[in-house]
Design brief:
three-stranded antiparallel sheet, globular
C-alpha cells in the first residue's frame, strides 16, 4: 500500500474513533497533524462528519405532534431501564441507543462510497478542468498558459500564503462543561488592538481604504503582485451576476463599454443595488440556503421567499431578519418567516439547531450532537444547550372544513410549548442521559415555563459589539463575491479553522454592525474594493494565490466560479429575449419557469440545502442547454426573440455579430473570432442554393456556440 493510502487509512480509523469517543490524547494530536497538512484530508473529514451527523438526525427521538413523526420516533426507542443515567430523566422520556445495526450499516455503506471516490481520485485533478473542453479559444489559451506556469513550479516548491496562525487560548478551563459557552469564532486573544470605530460607523471611503490597504499589505508580505485590473466587460458581467443574478443586456453592455465616466463602476453598483432583480436574486439565494429546493417544502419555501423579498426590498437589517426567523410563531399564512423552522423543527429540532448554527453563526456543530469535537473546544453538551432553545417548539397540525367548498384544509403552525420548563435531555456516546440548559455564548436563559427561549436566543444573537452573526454574514457574503471566504468552508469558523485575514474580517464585521447591519452597504464595500475590480486570471507574479489547490486565499484576483442554476436560467432569458416573447399570464409564465428550473436543478443534483449549485460542465448538463426548448426558441428567426429582432434589423453583418457577442458574453468579438466567422458565413452562403437561409443559419450557429461555451456559464 502506498504512503498516501496508508495515511488515508489512518485518517479513516481516527475519524471512526473520534465518532465513538475513543481517541487518545496522542491520536488527537496526530489527527490534527493529518488535517493540517492536507486539504484532501480536511475535505474527507468534513464529508465524513457531515454524513455522520445527517445519519444521526434519523435516530433522534422525542415527543412530536405529527403522527408520522411520532411513529418514526417510536420505532427507534428502547426501554429506558437499559440505559445508565447520570441524572434523572423526566417522565415520558424515551432515550435511544445511537449505535444500532441499521444505522451502522447505512454509515458504513455510505462511507464506502465516499472512500472509494476519495482513494480513486487523481490528486492532481481540478474541478475547473471539467469545463476546459467547452471554453472559448481565448479562455482556453489562458488556462493552458496557467497550466504551463504551474508545471514549472512543483506544488511542493510553491510557497504557501504567509498568514500568521491564530493561537487559541482556553480561558474557560476552570468552568464546568455546562458553563462553557458555545465556541465563538470571534474569540481570539491573539488579535491585535482593535481600531476605534465611530458609533455610527466609518465612512465608505474610510472603509474602502482600509480594505484595500489590508489586502495590499498582505500581497507585499507574500511577495506577489495582484492580477491586473479587469477589463470593463469582465467586471460588468461579474458584478451583474453577483448582485442581481443575471448578465447585462447587450444595450447595457454597449453603453457601459462606451462610457468614459471615471465613476461608472460606482454608479453601476449603486444602480444594481436598487433594481428589483437584486431582491429576487438575494431572496432566492437565502431561500435555497434556508429550506433548499425540495418540492416537499414548497409551501414553506414560497412563504419564506415572500418574507425574504419584503426584507431585501426594504433593506431590513440582517440581525432583525435572523431574529424574525429564529423567533417565528404561527403558520406560514400568519407569519411567512416561520417557513424556516417549520421545514427543520422535526427530530428533536436537531436539523433546526445544526442548520441555524451553520447559516447564521458560521459554525458547523453537526458532528458534536453525538460526541465532543476531536481537536477544538466544541463539546457535545454545547450542541444540546443550543438545541434547548429550539426543542421547546413543536409543529401543531390543525384541520378544518372550508364551508364554501366542503374541502378539508390543513394548517401547520409553530407553537412554543408554554408548559415546558427545566432542562432538556440528550444521550451521550456511553448511553447516559444528561441535562442540557438553554445557554448561548456563556449566558444561561431562565428555563422556567414562562420564558420564550427562541425569543431570548434571538436577542442574544445580536448582543455585543461584534456578534457572531455579523462575522458569519460578512464571511459568507465575501465568499459570494470572491469565490472564497476568509475561511474555507465559510460555515466552519473557529480556532481550528482560522481566517486568512483575521484583522480584515474583524474590521468588516464591526463596521457592518455599526452600519446597522446594512447589507447593501457591505456589498457596496466589497464590489468597489480594489481586489474585486481585478481580473480573475492568474499571472506569473501571483501563482501562489490559488486556493483551488488548498492554499490560503490572498484575494489578489477574483476566483472563477460557475453559475448557479438560477443564474444560468436568468442569463439565458436576458441573452435571448425569450421572456419578452412569452405569451400568457404571469402565473403561466412562472409555472413554465418553475418546471424548466426544476429539471435544471435535478440535473445539478442540488435539491437539498446546498449553496454549491454549480454548473459543472457535465455532458448531461451541456445537452440540456444545447437541445433545450429555450435554446431552440431563442435562436429562431421569429421576430419577438432577440435573435429574430436582430436578423430583421438594418445593421450590417459585423454589427450583428457584435450584438450576438455582447448579448451572450458581454464583450465584443475578438479579431480572431470575427475572422473565423466571416470565413464560415461566406463559405456557407457560397455553398447553398438559398443564400438567405444559409446566412441566417450561420449566425444561429454563432449564437448557439456563444450560449453553449464555458465562458457563458463561468463567473470570472
Amino acid at each position: 500500500m502506498s504512503t498516501t493510502h496508508s495515511g488515508q487509512t489512518e485518517l479513516l480509523k481516527m475519524m471512526e474513533a473520534a465518532c465513538e469517543d475513543r481517541l487518545s490524547a496522542e491520536q488527537v494530536v496526530r489527527l490534527e497533524e493529518l488535517l493540517t497538512d492536507s486539504e484532501k484530508a480536511r475535505k474527507l473529514y468534513r464529508e465524513y462528519m457531515l454524513l455522520h451527523g445527517m445519519l444521526y438526525w434519523d435516530t433522534a427521538v422525542g415527543s412530536e405532534t405529527d403522527a408520522e413523526l411520532s411513529q418514526t420516533s417510536s420505532a427507534c426507542t428502547i426501554p429506558a431501564a437499559t440505559i445508565p443515567t447520570t441524572s434523572p430523566a423526566p417522565a415520558g422520556l424515551k432515550p435511544s441507543r445511537i449505535l444500532r445495526s441499521a444505522w451502522i450499516a447505512g454509515l458504513v455503506s455510505a462511507l464506502a462510497i465516499i472512500v472509494g471516490v476519495f482513494l480513486s481520485a487523481d490528486p492532481s485533478s481540478s474541478s475547473s478542468d471539467e469545463v476546459t473542453a467547452n471554453m472559448s479559444p481565448e479562455l482556453s489559451a489562458d488556462r493552458e498558459t496557467l497550466a504551463e506556469n504551474q508545471a514549472e513550479t512543483p506544488a511542493a516548491e510553491r510557497q504557501p500564503a504567509k498568514i500568521q496562525a491564530i493561537v487559541a487560548v482556553d480561558d474557560t478551563a476552570d468552568l464546568t462543561p455546562s458553563q462553557k459557552p458555545l465556541q465563538n469564532a470571534n474569540s481570539n486573544p491573539a488579535e491585535k488592538e482593535l481600531q476605534e470605530i465611530p458609533a455610527a460607523g466609518s465612512s465608505d471611503p474610510t472603509i474602502l481604504a482600509y480594505v484595500n490597504d489590508e489586502l495590499h499589505s498582505n500581497w507585499v508580505a507574500n511577495s506577489i503582485t495582484p492580477s491586473p485590473v479587469a477589463e470593463d466587460s469582465e467586471w460588468l458581467r461579474r458584478v451583474h451576476l453577483d448582485l442581481i443574478g443575471q448578465i447585462p443586456t447587450a444595450d447595457e453592455a454597449a453603453e457601459f463599454l462606451a462610457s468614459n465616466d471615471p465613476r461608472k463602476r460606482e454608479k453601476v453598483v449603486d444602480t444594481l443595488l436598487q433594481r428589483p432583480e437584486f431582491i429576487t436574486n438575494w431572496s432566492t439565494i437565502w431561500a435555497n440556503l434556508m429550506v433548499g429546493r425540495n418540492p416537499d417544502r414548497d409551501e414553506y419555501r414560497t412563504a419564506l421567499t415572500k418574507y425574504l423579498r419584503d426584507s431585501f426590498r426594504d433593506n431590513r437589517p440582517w440581525d432583525e431578519m435572523v431574529a424574525a426567523v429564529i423567533a417565528a410563531e404561527g403558520s406560514v399564512q400568519d407569519n411567512q418567516a416561520s417557513g424556516f423552522l417549520l421545514a427543520h423543527v422535526n427530530n428533536q429540532a436537531v436539523p433546526a439547531t445544526a442548520i441555524a448554527s451553520r447559516l447564521f453563526l458560521g459554525t458547523n456543530v453537526q458532528c458534536t450532537q453525538c460526541h465532543d469535537h476531536p481537536f477544538n473546544d466544541s463539546k457535545q453538551n454545547q450542541f444540546w444547550e443550543l438545541n434547548s432553545f429550539f426543542k421547546q417548539t413543536e409543529k401543531v397540525v390543525k384541520r378544518r372544513r372550508d364551508p364554501s367548498t366542503g374541502n378539508m384544509l390543513q394548517t401547520v403552525s409553530l407553537v412554543t410549548k408554554r408548559d415546558a420548563e427545566g432542562p432538556t435531555f440528550f444521550e451521550n456516546r456511553q448511553g447516559r442521559v444528561q441535562p442540557a440548559y438553554p445557554i448561548y455564548n456563556g449566558v444561561k436563559v431562565d428555563e422556567s415555563a414562562g420564558t420564550n427561549r427562541r425569543q431570548e436566543l434571538a436577542r442574544l444573537l445580536a448582543a455585543g459589539e461584534k456578534p457572531q452573526i455579523a462575522e458569519a454574514f460578512v464571511n459568507r457574503t465575501w465568499k459570494h463575491f470572491f469565490g472564497f471566504g476568509f475561511t474555507n468552508p465559510v460555515d466552519d469558523m473557529g480556532p481550528h479553522n482560522p481566517p486568512s485575514h483575521p484583522e480584515l474580517l474583524d474590521r468588516l464585521a464591526r463596521e457592518f454592525v455599526a452600519s446597522g447591519y446594512d447589507q447593501k452597504r457591505l456589498m457596496r464595500w466589497i464590489c468597489l474594493s480594489d481586489a474585486y475590480g481585478r481580473t480573475s486570471r492568474l499571472t506569473e507574479q501571483n501563482q501562489i494565490d490559488n486556493p483551488e489547490l488548498g492554499e490560503l486565499p490572498l484575494f489578489s484576483r477574483v476566483y472563477v466560479k460557475s453559475m448557479s442554476a438560477e443564474q444560468v436560467y436568468n442569463s439565458l432569458l436576458v441573452a435571448t429575449g425569450v421572456l419578452g416573447a412569452q405569451n400568457g399570464s404571469w402565473e403561466e409564465i412562472e409555472h413554465q419557469r418553475s418546471q424548466w428550473l426544476q429539471q435544471f436543478i435535478h440535473a445539478y443534483e442540488t435539491e437539498e440545502n446546498n449553496e454549491d449549485t454549480h454548473f459543472s460542465g457535465t455532458i448531461a448538463q451541456a445537452l440540456m442547454l444545447m437541445n433545450g426548448e429555450m435554446i431552440e426558441e431563442a435562436i429562431s428567426a421569429k421576430s419577438p426573440t432577440f435573435f429574430g429582432k436582430l436578423m430583421n434589423s438594418k445593421i450590417n453583418d459585423e454589427r450583428k455579430v457584435e450584438q450576438l457577442a455582447l448579448s451572450a458574453l458581454t464583450r465584443y468579438p475578438t479579431d480572431r473570432e470575427m475572422s473565423l466567422i466571416r470565413k464560415m458565413v461566406a463559405q456557407n452562403v457560397a455553398n447553398s442554393r438559398n443564400q438567405k437561409n444559409a446566412y441566417t443559419q450561420s449566425l444561429q450557429d454563432v449564437f448557439w456556440a456563444y450560449l453553449n461555451s464555458s465562458e457563458f456559464v463561468l463567473v470570472h
